[in-house]
């Protein structure tokens, strides 16, 4: 039995029942694929249902305010996915008449849709014989065929795409592509794969050469940057506070936050008091106090944010402030959302 037929047999026996597998609607499949990038199925599932409830069609998503999209996305992280999702919905409506393109090439022209997502939509929805290559597929192919090329190198990306095309089942491409990804997620897992009961174990090079834990190979990651964030949580006598929207191309673009002071090192109360006296025009009722004396360390892919929230009470009325009871309606990073939930006013 060939490699692809073993994958298909395994998949038909072990596949999970997932809502996006019960449809060929490209809108729903595209939505699930974007959400499941960098996100586990169990975490992404509630968001998938909430998005479909709020935006049943691509037209609904295209017409929605960006703030609503970002608010529903809150907690999933990698917010550029949400902004690209919104932009792509507009592209589908404006350039393709509300119908997702049916070819790999046209799908790849959509914002935020790369090789993997274009291949997934084309094969799942339209039976286009295009192989998918995601992290799970890299792992299965690298282990089974004993490939030691780094999966994040140009040569590795090209090689694995060609290998995936060679071994795929073009006649059953929808089930095969879903099958090999499922196989990598469950059977050939990153840690503690089930090699003893694996239908591919007889031909697996990594198992034969005792390299299962060493494959796939990935080049060293980018060095992690440490940043110190100080959020100023202003409160006036009416419990109004100040919010600002993040602009530019950095993290959390277009999300809201409390006024931010970024420092080179952790700030103590004396340093914060000196900063406020020199930089703030507001009359302070008392010295700013750190809500969390020890920084909260929020880990992103290439950054670790050491964060303090400072409660700053003022006798001035914040004319452009936001009532505290309305703060939770704004799309904010999960770090700030957690703080808002815990602060009792």
From TrEMBL:
Cofactor(s) listed in the protein's UniProt record: [4Fe-4S] cluster
UniProt cross-references to CDD domains, sorted A to Z: ENDO3c, NUDIX_DNA_Glycosylase_C-MutY
All copies of domain HhH-GPD, residue ranges: 35-186
Alphabetical list of SUPFAM superfamilies matching this protein: DNA-glycosylase (SSF48150), Nudix (SSF55811)
Recorded GO MF terms: 4 iron, 4 sulfur cluster binding; 8-oxo-7,8-dihydroguanine DNA N-glycosylase activity; adenine/guanine mispair binding; metal ion binding; oxidized purine DNA binding; purine-specific mismatch base pair DNA N-glycosylase activity
Alphabetized SMART domains for the sequence: ENDO3c
EC number: 3.2.2.31
Substrates-to-products reaction catalysed: Hydrolyzes free adenine bases from 7,8-dihydro-8-oxoguanine:adenine mismatched double-stranded DNA, leaving an apurinic site
Cofactor note: Binds 1 [4Fe-4S] cluster.
Database matches in Gene3D superfamilies: Helix-hairpin-Helix base-excision DNA repair enzymes (C-terminal), Hypothetical protein, domain 2, Nucleoside Triphosphate Pyrophosphohydrolase
Keyword Hydrolase part of the UniProt annotation: yes
InterPro entries noted in UniProt: A/G_AdeGlyc_MutY, DNA_glycosylase, HhH-GPD_domain, HhH_base_excis_C, HhH_motif, MIG/MutY, MutY_C, NUDIX_hydrolase-like_dom_sf
Keywords: 4Fe-4S, DNA damage, DNA repair, Glycosidase, Hydrolase, Iron, Iron-sulfur, Metal-binding
GO biological process, alphabetically ordered: base-excision repair; mismatch repair
EC top class named in words: hydrolase
Record's function text: Adenine glycosylase active on G-A mispairs. MutY also corrects error-prone DNA synthesis past GO lesions which are due to the oxidatively damaged form of guanine: 7,8-dihydro-8-oxoguanine (8-oxo-dGTP).
Family label: Belongs to the Nth/MutY family.
Entry protein name: Adenine DNA glycosylase
Species of origin: Flagellimonas pelagia
Origin organism lineage: Bacteria, Pseudomonadati, Bacteroidota, Flavobacteriia, Flavobacteriales
């Amino acid at each position: 039995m060939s490699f692809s037929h073993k994958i298909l047999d395994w998949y038909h026996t072990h596949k999970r029942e997932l809502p996006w597998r019960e449809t060929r609607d490209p809108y729903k499949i595209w939505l699930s694929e974007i959400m499941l990038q960098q996100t586990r199925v169990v975490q992404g599932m509630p968001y998938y249902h909430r998005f479909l409830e709020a935006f049943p069609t691509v037209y609904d998503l295209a017409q929605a305010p960006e703030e609503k999209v970002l608010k529903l996305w809150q907690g999933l992280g990698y917010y550029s996915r949400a902004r690209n999702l919104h932009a792509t919905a507009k592209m589908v409506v404006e350039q393709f008449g509300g119908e997702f393109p049916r070819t790999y090439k046209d799908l790849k022209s959509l914002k935020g849709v790369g090789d993997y997502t274009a291949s997934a939509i084309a094969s799942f929805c339209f039976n286009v014989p295009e192989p998918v290559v995601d992290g799970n597929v890299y792992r299965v192919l690298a282990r089974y065929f004993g490939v030691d090329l780094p999966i994040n190198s140009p040569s590795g990306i090209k090689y694995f795409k060609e290998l995936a095309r060679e071994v795929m089942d073009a006649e059953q491409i929808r089930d095969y592509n879903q099958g090999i990804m499922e196989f990598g997620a469950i059977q050939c897992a990153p840690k503690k794969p089930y090699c003893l009961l694996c239908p591919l174990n007889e031909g697996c090079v990594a198992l034969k050469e005792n390299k299962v834990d060493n494959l796939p190979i990935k080049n060293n990651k980018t060095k992690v940057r440490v940043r110190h964030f100080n959020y100023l949580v202003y409160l006036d006598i009416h419990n109004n506070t100040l919010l600002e929207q993040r602009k530019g191309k950095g993290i959390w673009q277009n999300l809201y936050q409390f006024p931010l002071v970024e420092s080179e090192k952790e700030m103590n109360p004396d340093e914060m008091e000196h900063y406020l006296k020199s930089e703030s025009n507001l009359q302070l009722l008392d010295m700013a106090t750190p809500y969390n004396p020890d920084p909260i360390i929020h880990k992103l892919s290439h950054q670790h944010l050491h964060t303090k929230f400072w409660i700053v009470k003022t006798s001035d009325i914040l004319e452009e402030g936001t009532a505290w009871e309305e703060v939770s309606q704004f799309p904010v990073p999960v770090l700030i959302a957690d703080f808002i939930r815990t602060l009792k006013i």
